[in-house]
Amino acid sequence: MRTLFARPVLCDLAASLGSHHEVVVPANRISEESTAITPQMLPLIDLTQEEIDRIVAAVPGGVGNIQDIYGLSPLQDGILFHHLLATEGDPYLLVSQMAFADRDVLDRYLAAVQQVVDRHDILRTAFVWQGLSSPAQVVWRKAPLDVLEVELEEDGGPGCGAEELRRRFDPRQYRLDLGRAPLMRFAIAREPGSERWLLWSCSII
């Protein structure tokens, strides 16, 4: 604890921790020009060709939309286990709601989220487990946001639009398809009697 406060700069703290082992991560052998994926191209997971073909068939765009495939981390293993164990809802589902002054502001927000997804591999990652000897995480090259526009009841009164969205997408019943990247979903709706737009989002990240 003394060392932590005596060395507030991260690189100094790391140097003070003593011996450490450098981890060498194998280079990604799947390129944008790849027309097939073989077991030799996946150094971080042990899969048969049949299992790889099953993964490729599950990804929209096939080989051309697969950036990498590797095993799950221990935390991801736990997320998948509890997701499969639950019969309703999902214990790891994070839900939030926002309101926007108009549709243009909402569209700009969603475009910004898409840019973040485009930049970060983990946000373009899906889980595949059915028919595999061990679950895999698959990084998609392109993962467009899933945005559902819904129509709310007009006579609900002030504040009822947000409540209706909460009821429709109650996390105690709503489940996310872990096989589709990105692992976030959006529902949008114009607030009844207003120019405002409401956004409901859920994610497992």
From TrEMBL:
Keywords: Ligase, Phosphopantetheine, Phosphoprotein
Coiled coil feature spans: none
InterPro entries on file: CAT-like_dom_sf, Condensation_dom
Top-level taxon of the source organism: Bacteria
Domain Condensation positions: 67-202
Name of the protein: Condensation domain-containing protein
Organism for this UniProt entry: Sinorhizobium psoraleae
The organism's taxonomic lineage, starting at the top: Bacteria, Pseudomonadati, Pseudomonadota, Alphaproteobacteria, Hyphomicrobiales
